[in-house]
Amino acid sequence: MSDLIVVGYDDMFEAETVRLKLLKMQKEYLVDLEDAVVAVKNQEGKIKLSQMYHLAASGAIGGGFWGALIGLIFMMPVLGAVVGAASGAAAGALSDVGIDDDFMKKLANTLQPGTSVLFVLLRKMTADKVLDELKGTGGKLLQTSLSHGDETKLQTALDAAQGAA
Q1: What is the dihedral of CA 3, 37, 139, 159, to 10 degrees?
Q2: Cβ neighbours, 10 Å, residue 109
Q3: Are 137 and 21 in contact (CB under 8 A)?
Q4: Nearest Cα to 7, choosing from 30, 33, 38?
Q5: Phi, psi of 51 (to 5 degrees)
Q6: In this structure, what are the phi and psi dihedrals at residue 119, rounded to the nearest 5 degrees?
Q7: With left for phi above 0 and alpha for psi between -120 and 50, is residue 27 left, alpha or beta?
Q8: ∠135-136-140 over CA atoms, to 5°?
Q9: d(C-alpha 114, C-alpha 51), whole Å
Q10: CB atoms within 10 A of CB 146
Q11: For the packed helices 127-134 and 14-27, what is the interaxial angle rounded to 10 degrees?
Q12: Residue percentage of the chain with pLDDT more than 90
């Protein structure tokens, strides 16, 4: 079962910085991320979601391949590739994996302009090492599916980091 962690930051760039740290930790096998999305509310109040996976691009690549392959059978590989890429991009854009976009936008709407939120859906983590890596990042837990004990440990680590900064 995956755990959802939502952390709010007082500036527009800190959530992306922490996501990059998490992606680095994933390469070191300290966390297993299912999804990590940054939502930024700019000074005008507009919300921008920065997804970890770009489904439209990967759908276009896969669709282009299969379309070209099928096009070869009917002696029209270029047309098949174009049609396949277009349909793959459309299918990728319409599919949604990970954290629900509507949930993220609703929560980000409650923020002040010039702030950001990091939404993390993780399968598993090495808690002590991850908490050590996250010290110095600050942030406030907005919502989690962690146990009360784990939630307290995470917020304590974030609070200690804010005091040190």
Answers
A1: 30
A2: 11
A3: yes
A4: 38
A5: -75, 155
A6: -105, 120
A7: alpha
A8: 80
A9: 19
A10: 18
A11: 140
A12: 12
Give the chain's length. Answer: 165
Candidates 130, 132, 151, 148; CA nearest to 140 is 151
The token pair that represents 156 in the structure block: 């304590």
| Tokens (6 digits) for 147 | 């146990």
Residue 17 near residue 120 (C-beta atoms within 8 A): no
How do 3-9 and 115-125 pair as beta strands? antiparallel
pLDDT digits (tens, 9 = 90+) for 5-62: 899 999 889 999 999 999 999 999 998 988 889 999 888 888 888 887 554 455 556 6
Mapping DSSP to helix (H, G, I), strand (E, B) and coil, where does residue 47 land? strand
**Encoded tokens for 133:** 């890596």
Write down the residue that tokens 């980000």 correspond to: 108
pLDDT band at 153, cuts 50/70/90?
confident
Q: What phi and psi, each to the nearest 5 degrees, are found at residue 11? A: -130, 175
